[in-house]
Automatic annotation (TrEMBL):
This is N-acetylglucosaminyltransferas-like protein. It comes from Clohesyomyces aquaticus. One of its GO terms (cellular component) is membrane. The lineage of its organism: Eukaryota, Fungi, Dikarya, Ascomycota, Pezizomycotina. PANTHER family: CELLULOSE SYNTHASE CATALYTIC SUBUNIT A [UDP-FORMING]. One of its GO terms (biological process) is proteolysis. PROSITE patterns: ASP_PROTEASE. Residues 216-445 form the Glycosyltransferase 2-like domain. Its main location: membrane. The keyword Lyase does not apply.
């Protein structure tokens, strides 16, 4: 009788069920309102930014407009010149990489010769991790795991393929099929991480396992590493004991899927084969980029991933820079990946990256002026960190402010012909022609270098299209950067995985 007294009292109170329903409704409405405010406040902030900026330019004095225009042109010229210098410096990396390929190929055809510098039995033991969020990658994960087990050219007794995944719901029969692959491929481990909610959770769980590996490689689930990818990375570690991280080159292989993937494929060639290697020479540090990255195992197990960071890979890369870990870029260590085929997918992906970079930049900016805990930090590296964190974040405002300035020109004096529009946008002041020439020269120089190192998925026509659309693409990226800042300001923390097809 006493066990049911509370239920009896509850039923005896008139309207108790209505009160509970009202509380539930109010709680749901409050949660939905909070989500709505969090989701739309960044949009309102960015829209207000563009409207306010354009309006200010419309009422500014001609002299103030001229000064601002020159400021934007000078900063744009600075960024363009740094970019082309990085591109030129990257040529030495490319030449050296091609030289190594030629030597390996030549030795491979000589009877009795050893093509690779390191004998197979002396290669480091490698844990290759493919990280997956199973609901999102359910259509591709089996194919990727089988590919890694059958196509990677590395001594099978010195490599372990680890499929480390999480899923909020049961994904049978897929999970059972994945586990069943271990009977066919002895080098395979399939690990379901309990309670994981992120890539960082998956990796940190794996780092607690005593596998005896010398190196750990991290790949996202959409990647197809080239069969010799691990060997090129391993040889870099063997050649230099001070190297702690080897970052490979990521190539977009679905470049012909849409106009968007064509742009992204060239952008990736520019980033991974030109900008990253060139910056490593110019500014004395390389970067781990989240996927197709190799670490010395003891270093990574100690380093771990910080799950509270929106982009834990960027944070881990910057923490490695802070700790003076030597990171190198191996452009022969190629991995092929998918790019978003639709703008909505790109928008979500780049928004997450933009907010993650903003968050990481705030946390790690003190490296510019602080003393490192161990060793020293050169002026070139401090300058590089400032350029990577501060100038890159500031560039979003410079690009969009110039866009607002040009918009105000058009509103106040709408051009009557394409020639008038070009004159209004590019040649409003006496020195305009020189800024235009320098900017075009830097762009052409960067594109020429990119053309020399382009992947097999990039054509001449795609490069021409990229050149034509690149200024507009920069404006869109600038807007996404602002949106990421706005999300960081309002504390937006929803994670949207990139769709895999």
């Amino acid at each position: 009788m006493f066990g049911h007294s509370s239920d009896s009292v509850r039923r005896s109170v008139p309207g108790s069920s209505n009160i509970a329903l009202l509380r539930s409704t109010l709680s749901y409405a409050s949660a939905r309102t909070s989500f709505f405010v969090s989701d739309w406040t960044p949009f309102i902030l960015v829209t207000s930014y563009f409207v306010f900026s354009t309006t200010i330019y419309m009422v500014c004095t001609p002299k103030a407009i001229e000064i601002l225009w020159y400021v934007y042109m000078l900063t744009n010229m600075y960024v363009s010149m740094v970019t082309v210098i990085e591109a030129i410096l990257s040529l030495s990396v490319t030449r050296e990489a091609r030289k190594r390929v030629t030597q390996i190929a030549a030795n491979d055809f000589k009877p009795g010769s050893r093509p690779w510098p390191t004998p197979d039995q002396l290669l480091p033991i490698l844990d290759l991790i493919i990280v997956a969020y199973l609901p999102n990658e359910r259509d591709i994960i089996m194919e990727r795991v089988i590919y890694l087990c059958t196509q990677i050219v590395y001594p099978v007794d010195r490599i372990r393929i680890n499929c480390v995944y999480n899923t909020p719901i049961s994904m049978e029969p897929l999970e059972a099929e994945l586990a069943g692959l271990r009977e066919k491929y002895p080098q395979l481990r399939v690990i379901k991480v309990p309670g994981s909610k992120s890539k960082a959770d998956n990796l940190n769980y794996f780092f607690t396992l005593d596998t005896g590996a010398d190196l750990i490689a991290i790949f996202d689930a959409d990647h197809y590493p080239h069969p010799h990818n691990p060997r090129w990375a391993a040889e870099r570690f063997m050649a230099d004991s001070e190297v702690g991280i080897v970052q490979g080159r990521c190539v977009v292989y679905n470049s012909k899927a849409s106009w968007l993937t064509r742009l992204i494929s060239i952008e990736f060639d520019k980033i991974y084969a030109v900008s990253h290697p060139g910056r490593a020479i110019m500014m004395e540090f390389g970067l781990f980029c989240g996927s197709n990255g190799y670490w010395r195992a003891p270093l990574l197990r100690q380093h771990k991933m910080h799950g509270h960071m929106l982009t834990e890979d960027i944070d881990s890369a910057l923490r490695a820079v802070k700790e003076n870990v030597k990171a190198v870029h191996e452009v022969n260590s190629i991995s092929y990946e998918l790019a978003p085929t639709e703008f909505q997918g790109l928008w979500k992906q780049r928004l997450r990256w933009a907010q993650g970079w903003a968050q990481a930049s705030v946390v790690h900016m003190p490296m510019v002026w602080n003393k490192p805990a161990q060793g020293t930090r050169s002026f070139a590296k401090r300058y590089g960190i400032f350029s990577l964190l501060a100038v890159r974040e500031l560039s979003y405002y410079l690009i969009t402010q110039y866009t607002c300035l040009v918009t105000s020109f058009i509103i106040l004096d709408f051009p009557k012909s394409p020639l008038a529009l070009a004159r209004l946008v590019f040649f409003p002041y006496p020195l305009s022609v020189w800024f235009f020439i320098i900017g075009i020269a830097c762009l052409i120089g960067t594109l020429v270098v990119t053309w020399r190192v382009r992947s097999e998925f990039v054509s001449v026509w795609m490069m021409l299209v990229f050149s034509a659309f690149y200024p507009f693409y920069l404006v869109v990226m600038g807007m996404i950067g602002l949106y990421g800042h706005a999300r960081q300001v309002v504390g937006y923390n929803s994670w949207n995985p990139t769709a895999r097809k």
